[in-house]
Specification:
14 helices, alpha/beta, 7-stranded mixed sheet, 405 residues, Aspartate Aminotransferase, domain 2, 39% helix
Amino acid sequence: MTRNADELLEIGAKTNSPSYAPAQFLLDHGEGVWLWDSEGTKYLDFVAGIAVNCLGYKHPRIIEVIRRQSERLLHVSNMFYTREQIELMEALTQRCFADRVFLCNSGAEANEGAIKLARRWQYAVAEAPERIEIVTARYSFHGRTYGALSATGQPKYHEGFGPMLPGFLYADYNDLESFRAVVGERTAAVMLEPVQGEGGVRPAAPGFLEGIRALCDEVGALLIFDEVQAGVGRTGSLFAHQGYGVEPDIMCLAKALGGGVPIGATLATERAFHGWTRGSHATTYGGNPLVSAVSREVLAVIEEDDLCGNATRQGEALMDGLRSLAERFDVIKDVRGRGLMVGAEVGEAAGEISLLCREEGLLINTAGGHTLRFVPPLIVNAGHVEMALERVERALTRWSASRAA
């Protein structure tokens, strides 16, 4: 017997981890940039699984790759190579600064690998075992596992889970002098998001990343870019750092890399990988044939369909539209972003406005508690952006009316 939505939601409330608070409806299926719930309500999706579903839903090439690969091989141990794994690693290294790739399962795991890689390099290659400190930015977000959580510069995520791991220091994002004050002879690496995501969609300011690169070179530290959210076409270049013209030593990817299947990657130069030898690090599922095949196809579609260029065009239109709305609705204090990673700062009203947008048929979420975050699939077109702006306008009108009542 098929159970109805209310029955399933009741079971979910009893069995789901209390760390989650899902909306009280069931998403049922999707196509393109649209999602439908179990009652048939249609939503324009500008969450995309939090920047994961870069090709939207039901993309024919992804469906075909999953079908074909599932008939051949799903998983083997990393004790063996597969064609899919090698072709993905080749595709990644051909498109960026990196020479080698460690494939894993998530963004947190990719960041954990980067932290271990940097410390191991200082220990084994630089012969500086005292260099253990990882310097990150306040309001950063690097994941929920202990190393990534310790790297995250937001105390609210630390509360009740202490002590955090030692060796992590924080400085102010976009403030080079703040970093100069803490980066020094004990620094193993500086770890930054080129665009902060959970911290409120904050792009790096002109010259900031260049200054951090020079600072790392000056003191002998490695530079890690966490591109888990900003990478893979999201900001208008395949990798976010390419839009700034600054190369790291290590880069972390996940989210859009799999287009909906779970995959992460830690990429680095040959030099940075010199510290790792056989057995230094491993993971069971990383780079299995299924996710590798899908990820390779994601990269091909992004390239062939110029989705980086589309992200730039549609992102500019989205930000222009939000800035126009800010002229009429003073709750919008700032609009910022890069490509299709866009934030509108609205203060304490963020949660209410996000819910009103959902009622208007637009799915968005909040970042940093004060910012409306827009990270739609990279396949959105001008019509989708226009519809999204119309729905935001209706939501803002309703919110303003409720305040005036």
